[in-house]
Design brief:
37% of the residues lie in helices and 7% in strands. It is mainly alpha-helical. Helix 5 packs antiparallel against helix 6 and helix 6 packs antiparallel against helix 7. The strands form 5 sheets. A 3-stranded mixed beta sheet has the order 5-8-9, with no helix packed on it. The longest helix is centred in the N-terminal third of the chain and has 26 residues. The chain has 2 domains: 429 residues, Alpha Horseshoe (Serine Threonine Protein Phosphatase 5, Tetratricopeptide repeat), CATH 1.25.40.390; 107 residues, no CATH class.
Length: 558
């Protein structure tokens, strides 16, 4: 397995401002002994976080988790449509497969180095040493969890690799999950409930991740009888034992800037407006948060519009399926999440006179230029509008509802890729949905209903008066008779749309094949049973002594 000693080429230092956060600065030509110093040890821990940026909120990570599911299919642009289509082009030489694999092992090796050398560091308080080691264990668990979900059995190493080696093998999945569990259980013993530096791992973050891990393991060949019960209790503890809360308004969760650091966020992957550390510098690690690009329709060529910061860079990678629009978000009377997840109005950014709906219309800056009502209008009503109306039967791979939760109008210019939004990796709404699913399978249906209804109640419309409010909230409540895995998957689809969960959710619940066949018009005709795993990168097999005999390919990709 090719190994890059990341600590020889990248370490990080903390940037201090009015509100401290975990940030990165490039340092090169660092000696190997540096890691054994207090400053080097701290920088090594920070370096371990940098791998998060290689698969969160960028095209690689989004493609490997959002694409090829029941909720999203392909827009008109992009070079990786075959991942959504499940064609034979999706093979062991796929760039995203290779890059994801390599970056995760870089992160794992960094964690192994920190953990393995921690006791060599002098001049650091024991309590702080334990916290930093636990951060590395949390991250190592997270990286291995990502690998095992994507690839199944992978190479397992808990010791730092300093020199290139060609020895590798695929470990038993039971052992991989056991390492993940052990790391997280240890981390929960030493991590504090909060950290001074925003973005570091905490005790509730480790508990939340462990709940997610056990929920996933429960349907795998490594399942333990206690997985659902333990996952339920861990998630319930995160909900009840800390100061987190569901925000009153779903839209507020994704408010850019200071609003991102809100009471619902358990843990977030950090990005910054610093161009040096956010990816604009070719030597920087990470790419910035570029999720703002991928879920947008091609608004900028339509009458009255040009590309602008408020509406974003329309890269047209991911298009919501009819299932998403017509089933997940069918209730737009009681549930606010369609309105607060998708953009339905575009305002003129290019004043002028245009031919719209067969008549000449003059737009001033800020006039309504495009409206996506989400339903079919009466033809006379549509004809009376002095702006472009795009109804559902007019959706194409270029024109479709734009997901708004990742938009980033605070970028310095419209063509700037490296967004600064944090990626909200763990939030309390997911804790509630984990608890609901785990309690359901543990036979505690009443608790399951309680937690799913917490999420649904927050999403309810506020009416004109208290009586109407109560009617909306009541309409959003589900009962024990309603509860099954399909209901939970639908609720996760509405609440967590686009947040890099869906592929994992469908694989975990053994519904990937049937749901893609039913709801993804581009992937359904090609998907096979073996697509529940990704191909092992050919590079990994080629550089392993013994080749496929030592490191076999996943079935179906030979």
């Amino acid at each position: 397995m090719r190994t890059i000693l990341i600590l020889c080429i990248l370490t990080t230092v903390l940037s201090t401002s009015c509100k401290r956060m975990l940030d990165e600065e490039i340092r090169s030509q660092v000696s190997d002994n540096y890691l054994s110093t207090p400053e080097g040890f701290e920088d090594g821990v920070k370096a371990a976080y940098s791998t998060l940026r290689t698969f969160h909120a960028n095209e690689l990570g989004m493609t490997m988790t959002v694409f090829g599911t029941d909720t999203y299919t392909m827009g008109s642009d992009g070079s990786f449509k075959f991942i959504n289509e499940y064609t034979s082009q999706f093979d062991p030489r796929t760039t995203f497969v290779r890059d994801l694999w390599n970056s995760l092992y870089v992160g794992i090796n960094t964690c192994n180095a920190v953990i393995g050398r921690a006791n060599e560091v002098e001049g650091i308080a024991e309590e702080l040493r334990n916290i930093r080691v636990s951060e590395a264990q949390f991250l190592r668990a997270y990286y291995y969890f990502t690998l095992v979900q994507q690839f199944g059995a992978v190479h397992l190493s808990t010791a730092e690799t300093k020199d290139p080696t060609s020895e590798a093998s695929r470990a038993n999945i039971v052992d991989i999950y056991q390492l993940i569990e052990d790391d997280l259980r240890t981390a929960t013993q030493h991590l504090p409930a909060t950290q001074t530096d925003y973005g570091r791992a905490t005790k509730p973050a480790a508990e939340h991740l462990l709940a997610r891990v056990l929920l996933t393991r429960a349907t795998s060949e490594a399942a333990k009888e206690s997985d659902y019960t333990d996952a339920a209790l861990l998630a319930e503890g995160v909900i009840n034992n800390y100061s987190f809360r569901l925000l009153d308004d779903f839209a507020d969760v994704f408010e850019q800037g200071a609003g991102e650091r809100n009471d619902e966020v358990i843990w977030a992957v950090q990005y910054t407006k610093n161009a040096i550390t956010n990816g604009a510098n070719a030597d920087a690690d990470g790419t910035g948060n570029s999720a703002h690009r991928y879920f947008l329709m091609e608004y900028d060529v339509l009458p009255g519009m040009n590309r602008n910061l408020a509406d974003g860079q329309p890269w047209k990678r991911f298009m919501p399926t009819n299932y998403t629009l017509n089933t997940l978000f069918a209730d737009r009377v009681n549930d606010t999440r369609y309105q607060k997840s998708f953009k339905d109005v575009f305002y003129c950014s290019r004043p002028g006179t245009y031919n719209v709906n067969g008549k000449e219309v003059t737009y001033a800056l800020g006039d309504t230029a495009i409206w996506l009502p989400g339903y079919k209008l009466d033809p006379a009503v549509k004809a009376a509008k002095n702006f472009m109306v795009i109804e559902p039967d007019g959706y194409t791979q270029k024109l479709y509802p734009t997901l708004t939760k990742f938009l980033d109008p605070e970028r310095p210019d419209i063509n700037y890729e490296f967004g600064s939004r944090d990626f909200l990796a763990f939030r309390l709404a997911e804790s509630c949905l984990i608890a609901a699913e785990a309690f359901m399978y543990s036979g505690q249906t009443d608790k399951a209903v309680t937690y799913i209804n917490m999420v649904r109640a927050r999403a309810a419309y506020n009416g004109a008066d208290e009586e109407e409010d109560a009617a909306h909230r009541q309409a959003m409540q589900v009962t024990a008779a309603d509860l099954d895995i399909n209901l939970i998957l639908e609720e996760r689809g509405r609440e967590l749309l686009g947040e890099q969960f869906r592929w994992y959710d469908l694989v975990r619940t053994h519904q990937l094949i049937q749901r893609v066949q039913a709801y993804n018009p581009d992937g359904g005709k090609n998907i096979k049973d073996y697509h529940v795993l990704r191909p092992i990168p050919q590079d990994q097999i080629d550089r392993t002594e013994g080749g496929t005999a030592s490191f076999p390919q996943n079935p179906g990709y030979n």
